[in-house]
Amino acid sequence: MTFGKRQLVIAGLVASLGAAVYLNWQFTGSSPAVETKSEESSVSSLGKTTYVNTEPINVNTTQQSSQESKQKEESKSQENSKDSGVFSKERKSRSESNAEAIEAINEAAESVSASEEAKKQAEADAAQLARIIKTQGDLESLIKLRGFDDVFVSINNGTCTVTVSGGEANEENLLIIRDLVNRHSGIGFDQITVTQV
Questions:
Q1: How far lies 40's CA from each of 35, 45, 48, 192, in Å?
Q2: What is the pLDDT of residues 76-118, one digit of tens each?
Q3: Phi, psi of 57 (to 5 degrees)
Q4: E strand or H helix at 62, and its extent?
Q5: pTM of the predicted model, to two decimals?
């Protein structure tokens, strides 16, 4: 079996699409940020003096505030674990459906009995799916920069659904999210839904 130019292009598109799906899934997972210190910053902090407050501390007040802060942290971590579970399920579902679409496109492109028109359509579908996957990943990254803990963007049939957790979902941020989606995907404002969980 010999491979023509068209089959190589389709194989390349499918491979890049698969890589984009994998990278999107890999980099949108919730992993803790690691802070590193350079040698310069540690050296420059040598010799600095820190003054300590010498006023007496009320032990009861300190214990109460530490218990309250522990309770707040526990409830926040429970909420975050629920949210991250929802986002992980959605990302897994999206990756699976993208993989199925890639497989269907690949089968259509490699089919011997398919017409030239069908093969061209498969190439166009593969390119469109690659653009959607990239746009979803880009939007998730940009929206996270607005201060949200996690973001899930789904683009489907000319509509976009954005789900955010954490952060401040005030009117200004919601408008900025809609504007970002509109500018990066071309989807109209009336077809964009933003939800906070």
A1: 15, 9, 14, 47
A2: 555 554 556 778 888 888 888 888 888 888 877 777 677 888 8
A3: -105, 135
A4: helix 59-110
A5: 0.54
